[in-house]
Design goal:
The structure holds three protein chains of three kinds. Chain A is mainly α. Chain A is built from eight helices and no strands. In chain A, helix 4 packs antiparallel against helix 8 and helix 5 packs antiparallel against helix 6 (about 165-180). Classes of the chains: A mainly alpha, B alpha/beta, C mainly alpha. The interface between B and C is large, with 40 and 32 residues.
């Protein structure tokens, strides 16, 4: 059973480097496409004109919209990672296996990286599109809260001494914190704010020539996130293994 | 559900009378690399008194906490009083009592309130579910619950302090009340987690006496004590378990093992040379009097490894001389006098 | 799920709740600290608003202020709510009792809710006297009761779970705030919005009050349910 798990892991470890490279390539392609394929004029394509194009249409404003092709996929990946945190947290609570705790922790680490990227890109966007550094807009606020929750997750882990208790608390907190994710995701549907458009919907919100670079970027970031996750997980599992061997040696030496 | 305590107790006794008090097979507790318990197996008959010795971090407390259902094992099988620890912890909880160095009492409530809360939570004397509201601690004198509390209070010699807030109690009094709280539901397995730590010599004597009384009150009651102290631990033990790095270094009946072997293994588990001459010296001394408690316990001078051991010694060396200890005991310790004068009533309560 | 000796979960709940109330009645620790702290916050509000009062629309701001006060005051109380349980390992004693452990959560959350309500009953009139007595309030003012109640229940519900986590951590006071405020944020947002609408009145009452209140209650229900389900793991850890 254990051997099987390692076998699986080895297979995944083999593909993680190609995956990382593929992810980067996808992102580069998406980056190029976002400038070549996606049109500059936005107001007409996005069917809530008030949000971006409704304000004055200048050259600068249009170029900074390219951030969107980076910002939105990164945000989606961060939320997906948090889903893994919650799922592995639940698995840990059921099984009490340390491997689930390690996976939950690594998933949250990836989530933190992507949350920070989202926040930074969002900040740039805000500055250039809206001319302010901060606004208390619902999705922005809930996402900011999400960032605080992810940071809180790690502070909580550091504040608990006993490893099993730490894992339990982290799992519980990861599950509760995840409740904020759907709120954050749905908030633009619940509270129309005019700043964040609803991108995924049945009546095609985005024109295909904008959707294509977006989806390629999303695929790219998913690959990168997964590869990073495997890299980190391998390190963590090796660390745990080392610890085990050390303990074993100490026991036999005595 | 109008089942009385006695009724339920007798029913379940019939069901698992033959099962050993503690049956542990290949029990292990690990999280990640650290193994707190590793393949521990033993079986303890009913009515025995097991003392668990071991170095700090040998897994003594972990084992006790697992037996008390406060921690979960990560492997192996354990049955306590015939109940499976993993599958049926809730039924088991009704039959175990834990006395630890922490009192588990609410310090802002009175002695009586503490016992009443515990009694009601355990459903002691839960004959009248309808009107025995928990809000009226004072009312309901006629109920079994109040009678049980009264008996226990007198058994531990705290009747006169029943309406006093626990915060004002001495360490010894608190510990006595903690014992009463742990025994409120008449548990069939009593777990003791270093009950002597932090007690002054008087309180140690009183505690000894109390435990002896509880033991006499029911010869089927099983005890399991974790101890740092060889003398105190062996005083009442019928069985001995020595843990070393989470593994069983020695288990068996004290009589068949022989005190020499026990001491050898005990010192080996501490990583210290056998000191059996001194050990014999300890065991040869008469016990149960505060006077001989004062003697320097022949203990390895490994104070850094076992800091907890030093506290009773420090307490003892602070005493000016033997007579003052004894004087102290007879003059000031009303509790001891009380517990002897009310022995009959007390014994009944402990039953 | 009930105890093995026929003590119902509800009876366990009553015993534990009565125990908490009695303890508080005896020591008055939480109520006095929360009460005095909230009055101090009012004084701070007085000082910080003293220079702006001519310009600022205090009625529009008042519900935000009162929620700021409630969040910080509740943090103080929640931090203390497990002090007695931890002091001499009394919580461990409860874990030894054959009962459903989520009852411990419900009883503690109820006790915290009651203490917070008492504090609110003290603070709300004072707040009115200090800041609102000169202003004209909407006739819909009584409607503030519902968002206040929904918010307080949510605070007690989320807070009790997090306080149980925080008692076993290093630097528990800060940690509780750090975990609690982000988690309570959506609730706070909804409650402030509903309370403001009720205080200010006008046309907004028709379309904004109910959705905000519904959001608050929805969040309460989800959070309480999840906390209740997960509490066994937390308290047993």
């Amino acid at each position: 059973m254990k051997e099987q798990r390692i076998g699986w892991g080895q297979r995944l470890d083999k593909i993680m480097t190609p995956m990382f490279i593929a992810g980067v390539l996808f992102c580069v392609v998406a980056f190029v496409l976002s400038f070549t394929l996606a049109p500059l004029v936005l107001g007409a394509q996005v069917d809530t004109p008030a949000l971006i194009g409704g304000q004055m249409v200048t050259n600068k404003l249009l170029l900074s919209q390219k951030i969107f092709y980076f910002h939105m996929p990164v945000a989606v990946v961060s939320m997906a990672s948090l889903l893994f945190t919650a799922v592995y947290g639940a698995l840990f609570l059921r099984s009490r296996k340390r491997k689930h705790d390690i996976r939950a922790k690594v998933a949250t680490e990836i989530a933190l990286v992507f949350v920070l990227m989202t926040m930074v890109s969002g900040e740039l966007w805000e500055r250039f599109e809206w001319g302010v550094w901060w606004t208390w807009e619902p999705r922005l606020t809930t996402y900011f809260i999400l960032m605080l929750l992810v940071i809180g997750y790690f502070i909580l882990r550091n504040a608990v001494g006993d490893p099993e208790r730490r894992a339990t608390y982290a799992a519980v907190f990861g599950i509760i914190a995840f409740i904020d994710v759907p709120i954050c995701f749905l908030i633009t549907r619940l509270v129309p704010s005019g700043v964040h458009p609803v991108v995924f919907r049945t009546d095609s919100g985005l024109a295909p020539n904008m959707l294509v670079p977006l989806l390629i970027a999303m695929l790219g970031f998913c690959c990168i996130a997964f590869a990073l996750y495997r890299y980190r997980l391998r390190t963590e599992l090796l660390l745990a293994r080392t610890e085990e061997i050390k303990e074993q040696l100490e026991l036999e030496g005595a | 559900m109008k089942t009385s305590v006695a009724k339920t107790a007798s029913n379940s006794i019939a069901a698992d009378q033959d099962a050993p008090a503690i049956f542990v097979k290949k029990l292990s507790k690990a999280f990640g690399a650290r193994k707190a318990l590793d393949n521990v197996s033993f079986s303890l008959p009913r009515g025995s008194f097991l003392t668990i010795f071991g170095h700090n971090g040998a897994g003594k407390s972990t084992l006790l906490r697992i037996l008390a259902t406060l921690a979960r094992s990560s492997g192996g099988n354990a049955e306590v009083l015939g109940y499976n620890l993993v599958q049926n912890p809730e039924s088991l909880r009704a039959h175990i009592g834990l006395i630890s160095h922490k009192s588990m009492l609410y310090l802002d409530l009175t002695a009586e309130e503490n016992l009443l809360i515990a009694a009601r939570l355990y459903g002691v004397g839960a004959m009248n579910d309808g009107d025995s509201s928990c809000a009226d601690f004072a009312r309901g004198n006629n109920s079994d619950c109040a009678a049980r509390v009264n008996n226990l209070l007198s058994a531990v010699g705290l009747t006169s302090r029943r309406h006093d807030v626990v915060r004002g109690f001495s360490r010894g009094m608190t510990q006595r009340l903690a014992i009463a709280r742990a025994l409120i539901h008449n548990p069939r397995l009593v777990l003791l987690d270093e009950p002597y730590s932090g007690l002054d010599p008087n309180a140690v004597v009183v505690l000894d006496k109390l435990i002896a009384e509880v033991r006499e009150s029911d010869n089927k009651r099983t005890f399991c004590m974790v101890s740092h102290d060889l003398q105190k631990g062996l005083q009442m033990a019928t069985h001995v378990l020595i843990l070393e790095r989470g593994r069983v270094a020695l288990f068996g009946e004290r009589a068949s093992l022989g005190d020499d072997n026990i001491s050898k293994c005990y010192y080996a588990s501490l990583g210290i040379q056998d000191d059996s001459a001194k050990f014999k010296d300890i065991m040869a001394r008469p016990q149960d009097t505060p006077a001989n408690l004062k003697g320097d316990f022949a203990r390895p001078k490994d104070t850094s490894a076992k800091p907890k051991d030093t506290s009773p010694q420090a307490n003892l060396s602070a005493m000016p001389n033997d007579t003052s200890v004894q004087g102290n005991l007879s003059a000031n310790n009303d509790a001891l006098a009380r517990s002897t004068s009310q022995q009959n009533q007390g014994k009944e309560a402990l039953r | 799920m009930s105890g093995s000796k026929g003590v119902s979960a509800f009876k366990h709940y009553r015993i534990l709740l009565a125990k908490d109330l009695r303890q508080e009645f005896r020591s008055k620790e939480m109520l006095s600290s929360m009460g005095i702290y909230s009055i101090l916050v009012l004084i701070v509000f007085g000082a910080t608003l003293a220079q702006t009062s001519a310009k600022v629309d205090i009625v529009q701001m008042s519900s935000g202020l009162i929620w700021a006060l409630l969040i910080f005051t509740s943090l103080l109380g929640l931090n203390r709510s497990f002090a007695h349980e931890k002091e001499d390992a009394a919580l461990e004693g409860l874990l030894l009792v054959p009962m459903d452990r989520s009852v411990i959560y419900l009883a503690k959350a109820t006790a915290n809710l009651l203490f917070l309500v008492v504090v609110e009953l003290i603070v709300a009139p004072l707040f009115y006297v200090f800041f609102l007595s000169g202003s004209e309030l909407s006739i819909t003012l009584p409607l503030v009761v519902w968002p206040l109640l929904a918010g307080t229940a949510g605070i007690a519900g989320i807070g009790t779970l997090l306080a149980t986590i925080a008692i076993n951590t290093r630097g528990r006071d800060v940690l509780l705030a750090l975990l609690f405020i982000p988690l309570a944020f959506p609730l706070l947002y909804a409650c402030v919005s509903a309370t403001t609408v009720a205080v200010v009145g006008g046309a907004a009452i028709d379309f904004a009050y109910v959705p905000a209140l519904a959001l608050a209650m929805g969040y309460d229900i989800v959070m309480l349910l999840v906390s209740w389900l997960l509490y066994d793991y937390v308290v047993s850890a």
